[in-house]
Amino acid sequence: MAEDVRPPVCIWEVSLFSSRLLEYEVWTRINARGLAQDLGDSVSLALARIALIELAPPVLERVLRPFPSPVRTLDAIHLASLSFLLGRGIKVELASYDARMNEAAVALGFPLFSLS
User: Fold this and answer.
1) Which of 25, 35, 50, 88 could covalently link to 16 via disulfide, CB atoms 3.0 to 4.6 Å apart?
2) Residues whose CB falls within 8 Å of the CB of residue 61, separated by 6 or more in sequence, listed in order
3) Which residues 6+ apart lie within 8 Å of 78 measured at CB?
């Protein structure tokens, strides 16, 4: 909402996946700013385009092991979701502007989506 950067339009042309955590993060920010009435429908439509990975033990088990670089808890959950998908042969790339998250993903051998 106050970001200076935006992903390329082509991001909406590929299949999108995220931890269900994304849904909670987005709605927490929308509600905290009192924007649910104005943006609620648009947020719901955008989230509906993203396949959400449940926060289930088979997905989250990766969070319990060390990461090659320090990560925050929420980032660890997103990286665990990516690991879960890649481990099942689903070709995915991490799309993130967060340098720490990207660093951890690269160290794990995960591909990055070009956001430039």
Assistant:
1) 50
2) 80
3) 18, 19, 21, 22, 101
Provide the residue count of the chain.
116
DSSP sequence for 43-80: HHHHHHTEEEEP--HHHHGGGGSPPSS---HHHHHHHH
Mean pLDDT per segment of 10 residues, for the chain of length 116 residues? Answer: 79 92 95 96 96 95 94 94 96 93 96 92
At 35 the pLDDT is: 96
On whether the CB atoms of residues 83 and 50 are closer than 8 A, the answer is no
User: Phi, psi (5° rounding) for residue 110?
Assistant: -85, 140
**pLDDT at site 8:** 87
Helix, strand, coil percentages (3-state) for the chain, rounded to 5, are: 55, 10, 40
Global pTM value: 0.84
Query: Per DSSP, which regions of 13-49 are E strands?
Result: 16-19
